[in-house]
Write a structure and sequence with these properties.
Layout: E1 6-10, H1 14-25, E2 29-34, E3 45-48, H2 50-58, H3 62-67, E4 70-71, E5 76-78, E6 84-87, H4 90-97, E7 102-105, H5 106-115, E8 122-124, E9 126-132, E10 140-146, E11 152-157, E12 159-162, H6 169-174, E13 182-194, E14 203-206, E15 210-216, E16 221-229, H7 240-248, H8 255-260, E17 268-274, E18 283-284, E19 287-289, H9 292-295, H10 304-319, H11 327-356, H12 361-375, H13 379-383
Parallel strand pairs: 1-2, 1-12, 2-8, 5-14, 12-19
Antiparallel strand pairs: 3-7, 4-7, 5-6, 9-10, 10-11, 13-16, 13-17, 14-15, 15-16, 18-19
Helix pairs in contact: 1-5, 1-10, 2-10, 10-11
């Protein structure tokens, strides 16, 4: 009888946890190693498009995610003064892509994923370093340091997944000659606050070198995000709330009301880095990369986490359940499936990000005029930009979901 195969996942973000669930369901013995002391993300929401939901269906979690999410309703794009540039049609989007966009807090998604794993699979405060990539004839090796006690140990595994984010040490070890992440020229802020008293429609508002989005969550709170052109490493001279008030305080409702409800110490600010230069592969030996470690992208398409979830399900599909795991063949198939797709989306996200961050007034006027003109032709033309992204389907049969109609928006 073949010994149960072992997988080590480095990083307990959304992609790493999804991969752990997918491999566990296929009979792998999984260990997830997370450097941080805990798993609770603060102040951030995530939108899951139909492509990511179908991947979650494949691991039996899609229905639970939808049950705890807000289904995005009609909204659109606006100017800072409140004028609508374009209206979105949620039903048209759901019909085109086979389901709605849903939004939930990242902490909720993390809880859903971890609850699908056995007790003890996720180890926090565990800094992992891949010391041997392995090959078809020998396992990979990972050194683990307990950040609390300082003790060290080593794990062997038939498969190691580097899901350790944009500044991935696993990626640097696999491809030391790659130039790595590049600063996009923009920084982002994210907050989750109680909903304002006055209702509002979901929106994304484009200004000159600035952007704001407000999205209701199911629990009565609002997830808001902002982006602006800024030097790398810049910080507010006082605090980030004051900076947001300077940049967005005079924008249309509900932006001022949301800012009024923000506690300064609950604002997340991060510079946006991405990987415009694709990696030569997403694997080496028995080690594979996924998520931001493999293909970090600008947030302008809202696909970063979605693509990490896709990666996880595709990787588990190729890793398989049958005896006789062949890492070279399986991981080469994973790279062949994922590298072309994610490279194209990284490039599309960069182009869209450059459009949203235009600063010169003539360019902003031209951009807004073009968006308005496109919107007059109906939702189909605007939605076309997500063709080939949101209509993706996983290479496995999804778990049956009795009674769920993904094209129905409530």
């Amino acid at each position: 009888m073949e010994q149960q195969r072992r997988a080590v996942v480095v990083g307990a973000g959304i992609g790493g946890l999804t991969a752990a669930v997918a491999l566990h369901r296929r009979g792998w013995q999984v260990t997830v190693l997370e450097r941080a002391a805990g798993l609770a993300p603060v102040g951030a929401g995530i939108g899951l498009a139909p492509n990511a939901q179908r991947a979650l269906d494949a691991v039996g979690l899609g229905d639970r995610v939808r049950a705890l999410s807000a289904w995005q309703g009609d909204g659109g794009m606006r100017t800072p003064g409140g004028r609508w540039l374009a209206r979105t049609d949620a039903k048209a989007a759901a019909a085109r892509f086979g389901g709605p966009l849903v939004l939930l807090h990242r902490a909720t998604l993390v809880e859903i994923l971890t609850s699908a794993l056995p007790e003890g699979v996720v180890r926090t405060g565990a800094a992992a370093t891949v010391t041997d990539f392995g090959d078809d004839d020998r396992p990979a090796r990972v050194t683990v340091a307990d950040t609390g006690t300082g003790t060290r140990g080593e794990l062997e595994a038939e498969l190691v997944l580097g899901a350790d984010g944009i500044h991935s040490a696993t990626r640097r070890a696999l491809f030391p000659g790659h130039p790595g992440p590049r600063y996009s020229g923009t920084t982002t802020w994210r907050v989750v606050v109680p909903a304002p008293a006055r209702p509002f429609a979901p929106h994304e508002t484009w200004g000159a070198g600035r952007l704001w989005g407000s999205q209701p969550l199911k629990d009565g709170r609002v997830y808001a995000y902002a982006m602006a052109v800024a030097p790398a490493g810049a910080h507010a001279p006082d605090d980030e709330k004051a900076e947001l008030l300077r940049l967005f305080g005079d924008w249309h409702h509900p932006v001022p009301e949301i800012l009024a409800g923000v506690a300064p110490d609950r604002i997340l600010r991060h510079d946006v880095h991405h990987l415009p230069d694709p990696l030569p592969a997403f694997h080496r030996g028995r080690v594979a990369l996924l998520g931001d470690a493999a293909h970090a992208m600008m947030p302008s398409l809202g696909q970063g986490g979605n693509q990490a979830i896709e990666d996880a399900v595709v990787l588990a599909h190729h890793a398989g359940t049958a005896p006789g795991f062949q890492p070279g063949r399986a991981l080469a198939a994973y790279t062949a499936d994922r590298l072309p797709r994610t490279t194209a989306i990284v490039r599309r996200a960069a182009r869209t990000g450059a459009l949203t961050m235009l600063s010169a007034r003539p360019a902003v006027v031209l951009r807004d005029t073009a968006v308005s003109a496109v919107s007059r032709f109906g939702p189909g033309l605007a939605l076309r930009g997500f063709d080939g992204i949101c209509d993706w389907r996983p290479p496995v049969d999804p778990v049956p979901r009795s009674g769920h109609d993904p094209s129905r928006v409530s």
